[in-house]
Design brief:
Length: 323
Amino acid sequence: MGAIQPAVDATLLLSVPAGETILPLLPLVLCRIVTEESCSRSITPDNLITALGSICLSLVFAVTAALFGLVTGFIINVLAIRLAADKPLLGKFSCTRSAHPLKAWQALPLLGYLLQHGRCSECGRTLSFSYPVTELATGVLFPALFLLEGWGAPLLFHCAYVAILLLVLVVDLRHRDIYLSVIAAGSVVALAGSFFLPEVGLAGALIGAGVAGGFFMVAYLFARVLFPKIDEPLGLGDVFLALMMGLMLGFPNIVGALVIGPLLAGAAVILLLVSRKRGLGDFIPYGVALCAASIIFVLYPGPFAEALRLPALVSLLSGIIRF
C-alpha cells in the first residue's frame, strides 16, 4: 500500500489570507479526494454533487466495516473464552463470571459493556476490560483497512488476518497459550490469500514462512540448551505462530515483523518491571508482541519497510541469487 497523499496541496491552503476560512476551497478538496486528479479542472454543481455523494458512500462503507469489526471483536472474545475453557464453540452466550444466560442487549459488542457500566447487570461481578478493548480494536482496524485499500479481495483477507492474529493475541495474553487449531486455520487462510495478494504471492508466502519458522526453531532449540532449568523458555507455539506470520506477510515484510516484535516485547518487559507488575523470570507472552507487529505490517507496512530498508534487502538477495 502506498503512502496516503494529502487531499490538497499545502501551498493552496497557505494562500488563504489571514482571518479568512478555507471554506471556499472545499470543492477543490472534495475534487482531489474523490477523483485523485488535478484540482485545476473547473468545478461544476454536478461535479460537486458527485464528489459529495462519493464521500458519503465511502463513509457508509467505513461505518459498515466498523460495525462488522465490532461483531468480529465479539466473536474473538467468545472464541477465546470457549477455547480456553474447552467448551463447544457454538451455543448460547452466558456470563463468564456466574454462567447465567446473557440477554441479547448484554451481548451487544461494546454497547453491552458500556450499558452495564463494566459490571454484569445480573450477578454484579466485574467484567474484564479486555472485552471492549478487543471489540474496539477490530472496530477501528477494519474501517482503517477499508480507507487504505477500498473494497476487494485484499481487504477481505487482511481483515481475516487481523482477526486471526487478534484471536491468538487475546488467548496468549489472557491464558498464556497458543492453540494449534487456530494457527492451522490461519495458515490455510494465509495460503489462500497468497493467490489474491500480488505483493505477497505464493513464493513470497512460503519463503516468509521458512524464514520465520526457521529462525524461531533455532531460537527455540538454543533456549532449551541455554536455560535447561526452565520448563519452556520459548514456547513451541511461538514457532508455529511465526510460520503463520510468514505465510501472511510474506518476504521481506516478515523480517520487519521479526524486528519490530522483539522491540515491542522488550518495551513491554521494561514497563512491567518498572511498574513492578512482573519480576525477573516471570512469564512474558512473547506471542502478543509478535501478533501486534504482524498487525502493523498488515495494516500499513510501507513506512516500516522503508525504515528497515526491506526493499534493499530484497535487491541484495536477488543480486546474490542471480550471481
